[in-house]
Fold:
Amino acid sequence: MTGTAMLRKIIAALIVIPAALAIVLFAVANRGPVTVSLDPFAADPPLFGVSVPLFLLVLVVLILGVILGGISAWAGQSRWRSRARRLSAELKAARAQTETLRRQVEASAPAQPAQSSIAAIAYRHPNAA
Structure:
């Protein structure tokens, strides 16, 4: 295992372990039931209400917030994902066109014998020596 991967695991453990401990302590300290009602004009015993432990209510609201935030971020990035797909397709087409043109040039160019640069200069310029 590389040092970077090990460092990431250590940092993750330093974050996850205290967070999990805080959640457990919160759940143990807030076991008392609370009544949740979505009717603001309800009488003392609400008609549509449910009694749940406070920690459960807080954890459910927290999880729903994370899910809604993730969906919102994902929807906000749709423009960038579509642009990346379009640019990827353009790159693929450009590479295919480049390969086609390279093959055409190789097929049309006559094969020349390989000459060293000094021999080519001496051949082109007979007075150079």
